[in-house]
Structures are given as C-alpha cells and as structure tokens.
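User: Second chain of the day. Same drill as before.
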Amino acid sequence: MKNIMVIDDDINVGNLIQEALEDEGYGISRAYSGTEAVLYLRQNEKPDLILLDLMLPGLNGEEILPQLSGTPVIVVSAKAAVDDKVGLLMGGAADYLTKPFEIKELLARIAVQLRKKPYGADSSKVVYDDITLDTATRQVSICDTRVRLTKTEYAILKLLMLNPAQVITRTSILERISDDTPDCVESSLKVHICNLRRKLKEVSGKDYIEAVWGIGFKLKSFTVS
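Assistant: Same format as last time:
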C-alpha cells in the first residue's frame, strides 16, 4: 500500500482528499500545520508522497518544502501566480495543482508521481555507513565483502536503507515487502531480522539494526556515506 501525507489546515478540503485517496486504496496521514508536519516526519516512517498546502499556520509550505527532500511533493494551493508555481517547482516540488481542483486530476497527478523511479534514486546503489545495496543486481556488500542474504532478508534491509532515519513498524514492513516475499508473516519476521543482523555483524562487527520496543525496527545512527 502506498502512503500519502496530506498537509493542509483546511479540515473540509483535507477530509475530501482523504476520502478520495482511501477509496483508491492509499494509506493516509494528516498534519494541519507546517510545524506538526515536520514533527510527524521526524518521528514516523517517510510517506511515498506528500500533498502540501502553502498557507499553513506555524511554518508555512514554502518554509517546510526544503525539509521534505527525498519524497515527491505535490503542492496544492490557492496561489495561482506563475511566479509562485515556478519558484516552488524550482525549489523542489514535483508538481503544482491550483485550488479549486477536480479530484480526478489530483488522482491522476498522484499516479504519475508514484509511477516514477524512487526519489533520489540516481543510481542502482543505496549506501548506509559501509553497507552498499545494489538494487539492479540485488547484491549487498560491506567494505567490498559480499553478504549473502535470502530474498526476505534483502527486502527488509532495502526497506530500512531507503528509510534510514525512520522507525518502521512491523505491520508496515510486512505490507511493504509483501510483493517480493509473500511467505514472510508476522510470526517469522523476527527470525528473518535476527538472521539479517547476524549476517551483517559477522562481516563488520557492527549491529546495524535496532528494535524499537513495541513499535518496529530502524537502522542505528552511524555516519552515512
């Protein structure tokens, strides 16, 4: 399931968008101010896409946009001036939709963004500390030493490395790796993660993955290459 965050202080507009997106099968999170949005994103898993209003209480949309790098952002705003649109698109927004809008157009723009290659994926390699994961060859190495992982272990590590600052819940892990590893269920997830931690530690001596009690798992805070 793709997860979309709606950042808009207009409750009626937010409810309309949420209902339409849930009907399409998306997971939804909400924030009603720029400050709340920044706090939420620091403490939770990164969404797949963000819908951002500009005229927000606290920090406004222009102020928080630079902090949303790594996630496609569609600005949804009543500001219709061309200079506003150009400035935001040049400043990192993936798209711009002017209020009022048709829900069909919003859904189409969301679908286009979600079909694109993952944000920030300029190459097939994902790096965290001294781990390198190659999404093209599905190989993992630590300081040029190959680490042989099962399909499930690879999928878990890839998810964690693509969201290095986030605590990812057990439920979310199962949902987001289900296409690649339908055999992984809640009762076996802990075993897969234990095996993954052991294999990584055997090569580097480091324990890269930590459990956040009662919530899920995250990568430990090492210096990112």
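The helical segments are 11-23, 34-43, 61-64, 82-90, 103-115, 151-162, 170-176, 186-204.

User: Great, on to the next one.
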